[in-house]
């Protein structure tokens, strides 16, 4: 039995390019988006490719559009979403990479779980920045899971699974499975 909410039958429509009767202006490219928190301290600041910038742009569009119908974030301005959500999410990368490499780990196949993912932060942004990593977005609210599934599809992310469940329930189920193997 799979607890993943990403079934083939739950495909969502792509976001329309027309919002509330107004045509969206073309977005300026996110030229060399860098993490502000670590750019001065580290020479390995995160730069996103053109494709990754497009994926982030699609995420921001989806977040702002869906936020009009449900409360995903208090931030409603596009530039604030970029600085307060996207840049902050990318700031997690250097410490994560240092933590794995300091123990001699290979960072190419890291598996991470974003518990209580909400609007998909930082999980979706990290998934864009590190396509070789595998991410599980764990969220308990069905309506947020629906948004996350939509965002994963729109952003064309193959390294993300959305699980609609409570973290406590997932941990209890794993403990019970582990104990049944011991008997």
Question: Layout of SSEs?
Answer:
Layout: E1 18-19, E2 22-23, H1 50-67, H2 78-90, H3 93-102, E3 111-115, H4 123-129, E4 134-139, H5 142-155, E5 160-164, H6 167-182
Parallel strand pairs: 3-4, 4-5
Antiparallel strand pairs: 1-2
Helix pairs in contact: 1-2, 1-4, 1-5
Main attributes?
single chain, 183 residues, alpha/beta, Rossmann fold, three-stranded parallel beta sheet, two-stranded antiparallel sheet, 6 helices, 5 strands, globular
Q: Give the low-pLDDT segments.
A: 1-45
**How confident is the prediction overall: mean pLDDT?**
78
Q: Structural class of the secondary structure composition?
A: alpha/beta
Supply the CATH class: Alpha Beta
CATH superfamily: Vaccinia Virus protein VP39
Shape: globular
Number of helices: 6
Level-2 CATH architecture: 3-Layer(aba) Sandwich
Per the CATH scheme, the topology name is: Rossmann fold
Strand order of the largest sheet: 3-4-5
What number of structural domains do the residues give? 1
Strand content: 5-15%
Helicity level: 40-55%
Straight-line N-to-C gap: 22 Å
**Number of strand segments:** 5
Q: Measured on Cα atoms, how large is the radius of gyration? A: 18 Å
Largest sheet: 3 strands, parallel
**N-to-C series of helices and strands:** EEHHHEHEHEH
